Request: fold
Amino acid sequence: MRFMVMVKATKDSEAGVLPDEKILTAMGKFNEELVKAGVMLAGEGLQASSKGARVRFKGSKRTVVDGPFAETKELIAGFWLWHVKSKEEAIEWVKRCPNPFSGESEIEIRQVFEAEDFGAEFTPELREQEERLRAQLAAKKK
Amino acid sequence: MTASATHSAIDAVWRIESAKVIAALARRVRDVGLAEELAQDALVAALETWPGTGVPDKPGAWLMATAKNRALDHFRRGKLLERKHEELAGEMELEQEMAAADLEAALIDHMDDDIGDDLLRLVFVACHPVLSTEARAALTLRLLCGLATDEIARAFLVPEPTIAQRIVRAKRTLAETRVPFEVPRKDELAARLASVLEVVYLVFNEGYSATAGDDWMRPALCEEALRLGRILAELVPNEPEVHGVVALMEIQASRAGARVGPSGEPILLLDQDRARWDHLLVRRGLAALARAEQLGGRLGSYALQAAIAACHARARTAAETDWVRIAALYDALAQIAPSPVVELNRAVAVAMAFGPAEGLALVDALAAEPALKTYHLLPAVQLGRLDEARAEFERAASLTRNSREKKLLLDRAAASHKFRVVK
Reply:
């Protein structure tokens, strides 16, 4: 199964302060370990929310809100996608991770949905939509 | 932490650490079977201790230290006079390590230095050609993936005692034939590596052939094989075929969500909804293939198969498939790994690239091939002759052992009046 492992933002990361060399080295080593263990599928660091934006939906209306966003602790500063056997394995790996910031920080682990998780939720409408797409594809082939 | 939570945590630690512990011990005790038993002893100790004390800060180091202590006990119990020189050397090394003042720090440092080499040795020993392919697969899943005997048995649809026997015999064979705990020399490396990759790909295919309703351990074999492949790619980064097999598995795995319909029926590659492919895995597969290609030299059979899979993966629609390139790749594959099945696939690619007549000429030549008499897909390939297609699909259906595939072929036979080659 897969987990998205998210490093939560801090005041520093939101201020655009880059991690110091010591943390970068330790993180590099940890990433190398993840790759060697066949666990890491993907991973990226994210820039401060001041460089991002949000799109809010209300019915059919869309409103764009530019960053930065206030609730620092709820923001994400980086993420990995891991391939592990269980949530416990993901937790064990996170415990081996160096503290991504100096001071207090938090890493959140969330399981990724796999196709089979949608068994019952794959509604008739979705199926119909898919069949329409298939028909369009088939028409293109002819 | 509740007892069951601790057990789950121990499972997870075992998953991460067991291969390293076994590998590190095997180099010192010179016996993979014994190393695994000692590691298991350490696991039992953890199961007894950790529910009371909690999981230690460095669980890997704890397991390693405990296992090494068991190894020392084992050595001391042995009769001193009968001991082999190398065992004594192993014991001395262990004693020095255990005497180190800052034990944990010493262990961690030590692991960082050597563990890659030890793991690689363990891979080569578990996949040694003195063992049958089945034995290699079972031993590899046990030693390198940390799977329990019952998990392996469920995955391969065989009774647990069969797998237990297989593993015991494999360990005995390794001990009796004195297979050294070493990475093969340069002149042997290619052949030994082939033996390893064969096991990895076999495990993958076993998982890939699982059907709905099978025990979940079966499809999980794909994930185990992928993990093994990814680990190998880092252990021997300069071997193109390792990246080739990884690329092949990543790309095949990317289609897992698209290859089965809502009622469990198989969907052929060209009919699959490409939006349902896992594009992260596709990207990883293409990257692994690029690594194989960058290393230079002629592509091996896994890399060539991956290159073929990549042609499909790169096409946004079935109609955009580069059949000319696929035909050329099959041509290259037929040269280094000739087989009637490869020839058959080449014929299909040629038909798709240059028209049915060209392909059929190749297929007809193949039909005389005795090895293909019972290959159920041959008749299905004889497309283009619509009047014959129905009978061919029925014959194909009667030859396949997979019931889902059978239904697919029978459906095709029923629909053969409107059947046409998608091009």
